[in-house]
Amino acid sequence: MNSLVATEWLAAHLDDPGLVILDASLAPPGAPADMRAVFERQHIPGARFLDLAALKSAPSFAAAMRDLGIANDSMVVVYDQTPLHSATRGWWLLRQHGAPRVAVLDGGLGKWLAEGRVTASGPAQAHPATFTGDRNAAAHVTKGDILAGLDLPLVDARDAARFAGTSSDPRPGIADGHIPGARNLPFAALYQPDGTFKSLEDLRALFAVAAIDPARPFVASCGSGVTATSLLFAAHLLGNDDAKLYEGSWTEWGADPATPKELGPPTG
């Protein structure tokens, strides 16, 4: 199974033994929604709901995986149905907790529906399984790491206006701007209008415009550690599994009056 699978592939493998399909949809900030209820109204047959907002620690993650029927050797396909493209967040979490076979559904539920494919409704059904993965701390950096000085480029996945500080953060109490020295590659630029990923050539070109080498280690940041994972997934598609995530992202950095902040477009 490739890391990025097409709707055609998933439709042909819905009944494969050991395959688990997860809806990892997350509501955008400032637009709260009961995503579990949205899932129960319509989802891909056999899918289960991955509540990203409830995953706060390694123990809670392992417990959630067991309840979802995900074992260490499960084959997992993650999709979403919101503009955040949060399926990559589900992919990232599963991979960082040791799940070896995880893929993102290219185009998510939107493409599935556009193709007229069958859907289901109601709560998910799963038999508990054993999942024992631990969080890979080496794949993360902290605010303290950045303040101490990173020897890695930092790329911010928020849109250009929020990065520059010309548009305010949707979360109250968060300053405008970006981490000094950060580059900007808006996550939405990685996707085609139908929600599928752009070609590998186009992804490389987008990283180049942001002055980031996608083949070398870098740190990705965003608003809250969700959309930055689109950059990490894109780098993975290009063969790079050494990129890291600043999970606290601008929600943590911008809320701290002591952290340095910068306005305007990227410099240098």
Structure characteristics:
Oxidized Rhodanese, domain 1, single chain, 2 domains, alpha/beta, 5-stranded parallel beta sheet, 268 residues
- Classify the secondary structure makeup into a structural class: alpha/beta
| Helix/strand order, N-terminal first | EHEHEHEHEHEHEHEHEHEH
What's the CATH H-level homologous superfamily of the largest domain?
Answer: Rhodanese-like domain
What number of structural domains do the residues give? 2
Low-pLDDT stretches are: none
- Biggest beta sheet summary: 5 strands, parallel
Find the count of extended strands (DSSP E, 2+ residues): 10
**Helical coverage, percent range:** 25-40%
Number of helices in the DSSP assignment:
10
Beta-strand residue percentage: 5-15%
- The rounded Rg comes to 18 Å
- Based on the coordinates given, report the CATH architecture of the largest domain: 3-Layer(aba) Sandwich
What is the CATH domain class of the largest domain? Alpha Beta
If you average the pLDDT, what whole number results?
Answer: 93
- Give me the side-by-side strand order of the main sheet: 1-5-4-2-3
By CATH, the topology of the largest domain is: Oxidized Rhodanese, domain 1
Name the overall outline: globular
